[in-house]
Specification:
Layout lengths: L7 E7 L9 H9 L4 E5 L4 E5 L11 H6 L2 H10 L18 E6 L6 E8 L2 H4 L3 E3 L10 E7 L4 H20 L13 E2 L3 E2 L4 E7 L8 H12 L9 E5 L3
Parallel strand pairs: 1-5, 6-11
Antiparallel strand pairs: 1-3, 2-3, 4-5, 7-10, 7-11, 8-10, 9-10
Helix pairs in contact: 5-6
């Protein structure tokens, strides 16, 4: 299993959970608060931040442990009044207006949590997992659809992926670029869970982070829910 060697915490906040639009001024404010790296993604519809570029040292106690969380505390205070008000459900005890979704990508540097609107985890989740990977290369991306998905829905998803790949190798996302090379879509197969899986290969000689987050954002919003793929797995091809 590909484990996060450093456990550096990286947060991805989608604009839907905020009362204000994301912009360069929000990015600048987070940088002023001391964040190590902040990147606007998906045409300013999401923002990714790495607060201190260090893993949490859970062996520390008391004030020493709290000190390493200081920048994160400042960031939380900055965003607190900017979140949409939570739509409370009688059966829910979660006071937050968002839910956290763990995103796993073929990059062992970060542990990534996306803040998405309440209800999305159960209702319209688009997963991204590298659970079965043992190393970040060689890498194969598998895109999953329900078996009843139409060929037009599949084609629309692949076109989004192709356009993402063109941008990822030409201009990049979040200061990172993908290695140039051919994107190949293989023949589909049916998984044990009854999903239709398409293997996709692209050159991946070194790990990147932000292009994968951009891809997740594109696939999550690029098509209506009824036409979306069900998720992406990254695997080491046998």
């Amino acid at each position: 299993m590909l484990r996060f060697e450093s456990n550096i915490q990286l947060s991805l906040i989608t604009e839907e959970v905020l009362r204000i639009p994301l912009s360069a001024s929000v990015k600048a404010e987070l940088e002023n608060l001391g964040c190590h790296a902040v990147h606007l993604l998906h045409d300013n519809q999401a923002i990714a931040m790495n607060c201190n570029n260090k893993p949490l040292d859970r062996s520390l106690k008391g004030d020493a442990f709290q000190a390493q969380l200081e920048i994160q505390r400042r960031v939380n205070q900055f965003f607190e009044p900017l979140y949409e008000k939570a739509k409370r459900r009688s059966e829910s005890v979660n006071p937050q207006p968002f839910e956290l979704l763990r995103l796993e990508i073929p990059d062992p540097r970060f542990e990534i949590h996306a803040r998405i609107p309440r209800g999305e985890v159960d209702g319209s989740l688009l997963s991204m997992s590298s659970y079965s990977m043992k190393d970040w290369e060689p890498m194969e991306m598998r895109v999953f659809f329900k078996k009843e998905a139409s060929s037009s829905d599949q084609s629309a998803t692949f076109e989004l992926i192709r356009q993402w790949h063109i941008a990822a190798i030409s201009t990049g996302f979040g200061s990172e670029m993908m290695q140039p090379g051919e994107l190949r879509i293989g023949s589909p197969f049916t998984t044990r869970k009854g999903l239709l899986a398409f293997p996709i290969t692209i050159p991946y000689p070194q790990p990147v982070t932000y292009p994968w987050l951009e891809l997740w954002l594109i696939l999550r919003s690029g098509l209506p829910l009824s036409r979306r793929c069900r998720g992406i797995d990254f695997v080491n091809p046998s």
